[in-house]
Amino acid sequence: MGAGSVRFAAALLLLVVAAAGSATVCAAQLRRNYYAGVCPNVESIVRGAVARKVQQTFLAVGATVRLFFHDCFVEGCDASVVVASTANNTAEKDHPNNLSLAGDGFDTVARAKAAVDAVPRCRGRVSCADILAMATRDVIALAGGPAYAVELGRLDGLSSTASSVNGKLPAPFLNLDQLTAVFAVNGLSQADMIALSAGHTVGLAHCRTFSGRISGPSADPTLNQSYAAQLRAECPPNVDPRIAVSMDPATPRAFDNQYFKNLQKGMGLLSSDQVLYSDPRSRPIVNAWAQSSVAFNQAFVAAMTKLGRVGVKTGAQGNIRRNCAVLN
Length: 328
Description:
This protein has helices at about 5-30, 40-55, 60-70, 105-115, 130-140, 175-185, 190-195, 210-215, 225-235, 260-265, 270-280, 285-290, 295-305; strands spanning about 155, 205, 245, 320. It is mainly α. The strands form 2 sheets. The protein has a two-stranded antiparallel sheet. The protein has a two-stranded antiparallel sheet with strand order 2-3. Helix 3 (about 60-70) crosses helix 4 and helix 4 (about 105-115) crosses helix 5 (about 130-140).
């Protein structure tokens, strides 16, 4: 290992240790039933608003899950990703890596916030960060995924800048070591990363994120050929850049362990999906969760709970926004 590699490894280790310590502190500040004294029915209020949104469009499921992930990986789970840009500030949501976040995710949060604030005793008492965490849990359950208790007590972040996104989100072409490193910075293990990657069992991906895998000189020979042909038909050359396809071609409207079964067949849409099976170090977990939905659900809930503890704001670090899209 060269001197540069040693320095990188040392720096990464420091980041991992710091992230793990931070997650422990934040976890102690979060708890279930956090709003019992001020808005006791908050979870049912949010669940009702989310259910109405999902009835209108199933796209809200994948959009909300992805919004939560992108929020937590940049400055922690503080709803900074939903803040709108102003004349003086380009917010996180307008960073190039976030431009593909679907509007239905933002709308899900806005509707849940409005429903909560429509109850006089709850108005101004529940953070957007907690509303996003609850909404994410609810869309997963509505799509047939595991139901789980959400720890609450996050405050909303006081800033949101596009520059803070740089290097924080995993790219669709990363290999196993790179994926593991990005998640480790947030106190998440390789197993957590594999479990959370299965969020791709719902939602869409724009053609440009995988176009190099299905045609041209860099076409991926490991990609299932019939699946590649299907993708080429859906994403022909010069396709409208707004076109997106389901990330799970088998059960696109169900949150399940089909994601792992797809990987076994060479049908991972992104190279960062398929690498979880092609790399022999992660393949055993993929095989285990393809076989057992119970084991996957348990691992996913554990990973989501850890993700929800990342970078939580408390005390003077945050506040409760009156409008989730506008800093107070």
